[in-house]
Amino acid sequence: MKVLTLIPIFFLSLAVCSAQKESLTIGPGDMLHISVLESADLEQHVRVTDSGDASLILGGKVRLLGLSPDAAAVAIEKTLVAGDYVLNPHVSVTVEHYAKLNVGVVGQVRAPGSYETDTPRSILDVLALAGGLTDMADRRITIERSDTKEQILYFVSNNSAAALKEQAMVFPGDTIVVPRASFVYVLGDVGHPGAFAAATNDSNMTVLQAVALAGGTPPNAVPSKARLIRKAENGAYIEIALSLSDMQKGKRSDLPMQADDIVYVPFSYARNMLISINGILAAAASASIYRF
Q1: CA atoms of 8 and 4, how far apart (whole Å)
Q2: Which pTM value belongs to this model?
Q3: 101-178 — its CATH code?
Q4: Do domains 2-97 and 183-290 have the same CATH topology?
Q5: Are the C-beta atoms of 119 and 171 separated by less than 8 Å?
Q6: Is there a contact between 197 and 136 (Cβ–Cβ < 8 Å)?
Q7: Domain 183-290 in CATH 1.10.3720.10
Q8: Mean pLDDT by 10 residues, the chain (292 residues)
Q9: How many Cβ atoms are within 10 Å of 122's Cβ, its own excluded?
């Protein structure tokens, strides 16, 4: 009767473990708790060797490197069956302590570096360790898993509810890469011409947003003759007429900008005709970078 009452409890625990499936795989130095339902004598606490093996009380060494706890339990069950130690074993494996490894955080954070951890942590927690994102950070970051080299894209939202709800997990040994945001340029007759990082909540920038960051257009400017300079796929620069004044009045839809786009607002009709693409590109190359 005791065995019959224990079996449902055991399978209930397996169901819970399955529902909370581990994403972090077993690695060298991890401390495991191994239990076998059919034999309490086979319960043990064992550390995974540098080569990725665990030494069982019965069955000798079994390779568990890179396996999830559920997969490790299956591997141990097969070892016990193959050695005729247990006819139909039900094994449970849990990771009591993960080996301390470093999480690398590089790129546009205030304190890039390597941070020691022995447990999975949320992405916001790890970014906080690194001082948070800089004003130049692109919110589209990459997490690379240490074991599989899988790259996970994660967007750091400015919306607190979304940021807390949709957090990715970072595991010991992972690397986080925070790239620099792309830049757009607003030159000519605007409040403060220069380069602006597309560090908005969606890491995109529109023409009106960029012009607003540049201080807008003064009364003497000629926004109706504005130009957009964009680099084509073949590397050549193309010039696009931009009806900025109609956009500002709501008569035309705002236009999304691409990385390295240049908006040029002329000072007058005559000066607009005199300035070439090469002149605008040269001005962009020496433009001041603004951080917002």
Answers
A1: 7
A2: 0.64
A3: 3.10.560.10
A4: no
A5: no
A6: yes
A7: no
A8: 38 38 74 95 94 94 94 96 94 90 94 90 95 90 90 88 84 93 91 86 84 92 91 90 92 92 83 68 73 52
A9: 14
